Structures are given as C-alpha cells and as structure tokens.
C-alpha cells in the first residue's frame, strides 16, 4: 500500500479539525480545498483495494453505500441547523445526486471510454433493471408529493412519508439482494470470453498425384499449435488480490476519507452560500455543489473503470449511487422528521419534472442496446449541463 494513501486520511482529518467552525481565510481555504482533493483521491484508491479483494459488484456497492450514508448524515445535520431555509435541502440534494449520477457520471464515463475504446459493451438486463428501480423510487418519493392533496404544498403527510420511506427501503433492499446474491453475474463486467466463439476449420488435406496409393493417405497427426494466440483483452494486468488485513485497513481508511470529504465539504459550504447569495442565485445551488463534492470519489472511480474498458462497473457506480441516495435518504429523512422542526418539502417543481422525464427517456435509449458510443455520452453530458445552468439561472 503506498505511503501517501496511509498519510492522507489522518492529514485530511487534521485539516478538518483545524477548520471546523472557523471563518475560512485565504490560507485556510486553500488548505481545506487541498485536503478535500487529496481525500477524494485517497478514497478512490482504498475503494479499489477493497473492490479488488471482495470482487464485483460488492466493491462498487461498498463505495456507494459509504458515500450515501455520510451524505445522509450531512443532509440531516444541515437541516437541523438550517431552519425553514433548509426545508427543501433533502429534495434538492437527492435530485442533484440523481442528475449527477445518471447524466454527469454516466455521460463522462461514456465519453472518456468511447474516446479510448470507440465502442463499449455492457449488460442490458443489469443496467435496465437498475434504471427501472431508480425511476420508481424517484417517482414515488419526489414526484408524487407535488400532486398529493392531504397536505398543502409539495409535502407528504406523516403517513405518506412513512409509506414512502418504507417502500424506498424495501425496493432498495431487494435490488441489493438481486445484485449481490440472486443474479450477481448480471452485474459483472463484460469479459472477452463471453463474445461469440470463432469456429476454426482445418483445410482439407491434399497430396500430389502418385502411383503409390499410400501417398494419398493423410498423415496420422497434424502439427498444429496447442493453443491459438488471440489478442488479449485491453486491460491492465491482473494483480494478486490484497490480503484480508490490507482490505480491512483500506476499508477503515475509506470511511475516514469519506468523513473528511463530507466534513470539508460542509466547512466550505458557508463560503458557497455567501457566494451564492452575492450572485443572486437560488439556494438550491448549494445542494448541487455539495452533492458534486460528495460524489467526487465515485466519479473518479467510474471514469477510471471506463478507461479500462469496464463500462459495466461505471454503470454499477452511477446507477447504484442514485439508488442508494434515494433508497437510504428518504427513510432516514422520514425518521429524522420526527424531531426536525419545520416543513419537509419533497415534491419536484415543473422544471425538475421535465429534466427527470428527459433523463429517463434518454437513459432507456442509451441502455437498450448494450453498446455505447461517444454520442450517447455527449447527450447525457448536455442534459447535465442544462440541469446545472437552469439551477443557477432558473
């Protein structure tokens, strides 16, 4: 294990401790940004170590769960201290996570991977099922509150919120069971051995015309190679899996890195809020920026997997992160609403509904064939750019 990967997590926590609750000056702000970037890189490294030990899709699931759990803690903390201004923070952050993962991370992985490999393959049944669960979760949790009539505004009643939380948790639990137990092979990266086999035929033996009849008989054995040299899969050499102790150390350091990422992101958030207010932009921008910072480890991991021609791993990270963000955040918010004061706005507005519908339709077309090119990635990135622009300038 590289020494820098061992040193970064405690150093990032030291920076977090020095900057927590303080007004960030120029020097301290630079240290916080540097610690945030280093923690993201270290988190990706340790996540890959754990993933190499446990195999796919458990490795991507561990990273998605770790990021989402700490993201939920950050949302609840900000809602508890934000008052009425934070009434829509959960909705803005969860919807931003969906748009970032389904358009930003997915589009970036498709573009980067296509630039190196031209066309990439993935498993339709795995990605399609994840998209179906994600669509159902967003509709039941973030779309329906806009149209319910039990309470005023885009909110749920207590019974409706409890039902939405339980439904989200059950659907996500079933998806994890299918992903890791029942149909684990569906979510594994596409391997070259799964491509259609090539049938090799030996040309008919011929001998020169001779009066000797024995000369017409073929030899008993042909000198053929035992194995056919096929081009190897374009990937990195397979290294030996790390030991269990190394994987446990990396798992602990991964959580420390994620704590540092979320804590440093929260430390920077007051500066972001001041900049947003000075620019006259809506407060939803803060939720988008925080979601971007928190999802940086998964973004880097998805891009690196695409560069290795493992697009299925990138899809597992992108769609799995969206599912974890909704499936865990909504139940946690439902429980936290018992002691949180003020309304809890969950329903999406008209602009967000249009963007979500566009994302679902385009994602269905992208995942329908099992092959992706540069065009699909560019379309997803354009949708993500539109989301960011319309968030800043509604």
From TrEMBL:
One Pfam family here: Na_Ca_ex
Domain Sodium/calcium exchanger membrane region: 26-180, 250-391
Recorded topology in the membrane: Multi-pass membrane protein
Keywords from the UniProt entry: Membrane, Transmembrane, Transmembrane helix
Transmembrane segments: 27-46, 58-81, 93-112, 124-147, 159-178, 246-268, 280-303, 315-339, 345-367
Family annotation (InterPro entries): Alkaline_pH_Ca-Antiporter, NaCa_Exmemb
Superkingdom of origin: Bacteria
UniProt subcellular location: Membrane
Listed name of the protein: Ionic transporter y4hA
Species this protein is from: Kribbella alba
Lineage of origin: Bacteria, Bacillati, Actinomycetota, Actinomycetes, Propionibacteriales
